[in-house]
Write a structure and sequence with these properties.
By secondary structure, this protein is α+β, with helices and mostly antiparallel strands. The protein is built from one helix and five strands, in the order βαββββ. It has a single domain, classed as Thiol Ester Dehydrase, Chain A, CATH 3.10.129.
Length: 131
């Protein structure tokens, strides 16, 4: 697959990781499940901050895999609030990979829209505080 270079968003990443060999198949491509888990974690970081507390994932509304992630890529996750409800919040997460250190290129690898619900300590739904 040909890398299609792009620019990362002008935002601070909510998460940054490097996939390891244990995260990949025999060809060095990172498993989709690993990518999905990292996207969910990145979205939860912003959801937790925006709702000021505990959240749980209730829906993965969309997820698009644009390019494979490889072992050794430096992967950055950027998140933005798409929608705020009374007790739920939808977060858009974009995932970019920085690869080929000798000839660096940045590519968008995955994007998703995930909905989280704000929870009380007893796991019941709670109202999201005003922004």
């Amino acid at each position: 697959m040909i890398d299609t270079p792009c620019q990362m968003p002008d935002l601070t990443p909510v998460l940054k990781v490097i996939p390891m060999p244990s995260d990949a198949n025999q060809y060095g491509d990172v498993f989709g499940g690993w990518t999905m888990a990292q996207i969910d974690l990145a979205g939860a970081v912003l959801a937790h901050k925006a709702t000021r507390g505990r959240v749980a994932t209730v829906a993965v509304n969309t997820m698009q895999f644009h390019q494979p992630v490889s072992v050794g890529d430096i992967v950055s996750f950027f998140a933005e609030v798409e929608r705020r409800g009374n007790s739920s919040i939808t977060i858009k997460v974009q995932m970019y990979a920085e690869r080929h250190p000798a000839n660096p290129v940045t590519v968008k690898v995955t994007e998703a829209s995930i909905t989280y619900v704000a929870l009380n300590p007893d796991a019941s739904k709670r109202q999201i505080p005003a922004a």
